[in-house]
Amino acid sequence: MSGTLDESTGMTIYDLVVQKKAENKLIQNDSSVNGGLTGDVDGVNRVFLTSFLPNLASISVYYNGILQTQGASQDYVVSTVGSQAQITMNFTPLSDSIISVDYQR
Length: 105
Prior knowledge:
This protein has 105 residues and is mainly β. It has one domain (25-103): Immunoglobulin-like (Sandwich). The protein is built from no helices and eleven strands.
């Protein structure tokens, strides 16, 4: 994977791979490899799965563009289900919401 060096910060910027499921506004940004995120944003479902097991510490979840806080008494929790990460929201996302997730392998 090639990136562009930002000389002002000394950091390398990588293009993100974005997959969007248009009918329910589920977006997954994976900065290291193509993958998928499953789960309906339908006003009922609170559980979403990655297509592989990413680095759990690298997961960031955004709800309508706002970074959520991980934790049992916060916005979401992450667990491992076989070779996938399971993201369980501690609230029910509305059907017209956008959920996006950034993570690394």
